């Protein structure tokens, strides 16, 4: 077989080019520290590298979510702890207010302190997180959780019951917020009388005077109370009150002016009679009164205490009894608020611990994943440097051999 001069040159050129390419690849590996520079270098390793990098990125997102959740929960814990301190101080004020040695001026001073603490509570319950969203508004992060409603003259919850869950692990989601609906709106207020049926409009209001008396009378009675106003022209009006079974509970028709026949003394409630209703013989007029317990919140508990401290005149026996009832009811609702606060902080502590444990799991998994990635992607410098030195020698030898071979020609011997 005849070998032409061009074949010799092309063969040596290919050899030098191949050695140059191998050397250049090794140089790139040494400069980047990566063993696989492109998928064609090792398709199986390249596929594993892509998969492992996705796992690392996802795990980084989980760790970021943990940081966000921890900030929110710790901020919530601080707010709840401060609210609990205010609750304790409100209890102290309530107990102090029940003392009969206090003057009206003393009670007004306590009312001013209660008002200040109410504003502090409002600020805490409208706490914002680091993203500027209201912490206790549920999904309505742009809306303040609580605001004073002029129509009802109470503080109302403006958020919703939403609870934000954040993924902190492949199969683990943690609630990073709590709605004020759950934290503050579950306090059971004492049962209060209300007008449930008033077709002729004879009643214009009902209020509690003596809770103990009402509970004593209604212990074995059926609701609602049937109210019959016999004569609206008398002072006080002539009333007949029966329970749902028809048992007569109050009847002052014999002598309405007798103090023993006053409704507040007999049933512990007070009824307002509408003066615009024509007097007998147009009557009698009927109505019904029932009892119901509504949900309340710490703001309205404090607001009601403040109003009682400022507005009730304890020189009046009926208002004094109403104030005594207010003190007892306030202490009861404050106890519920304290229990709710403790439960909320217990839940927060459990979630913060869960986040710390998940963070440890994620860190260990991240370390393992990065070690696996390194085994596929990272360069063995000792092996690469040895290979680089060998490739340099091979390339040098190729250049030297080519310089010798190119001089070999028959023309040199003719």
TrEMBL record:
Q: Where are the transmembrane segments?
A: none
Write out the coiled-coil annotation as residue ranges: 66-93
* Flagellin C-terminal domain sequence ranges: 333-414
Q: Name one GO cellular component term.
A: extracellular region
**Repeat listed as a keyword:** no
**What residues does the Flagellin N-terminal domain cover?**
3-140
Where mainly located? other
Q: Which GO terms describe its biological process?
A: bacterial-type flagellum-dependent cell motility
Is this entry keyworded Transmembrane?
A: no
Matching entries from Pfam families are given as: Flagellin_C, Flagellin_N
On the tree of life, the source organism's domain of life is: Bacteria
Q: List UniProt keywords, sorted A-Z.
A: Bacterial flagellum, Cell projection, Cilium, Coiled coil, Flagellum, Secreted
Molecular function (GO) terms for this protein are: structural molecule activity
Q: Where does this one sit in the cell?
A: Bacterial flagellum; Secreted
Q: Which InterPro entries match?
A: Flagell_FlgL, Flagellin, Flagellin_C, Flagellin_N
Tell me its family.
Belongs to the bacterial flagellin family.
Q: Could you tell me what this protein is called?
A: Flagellar hook-associated protein 3 FlgL
Say which species the protein is native to: Marinobacterium stanieri
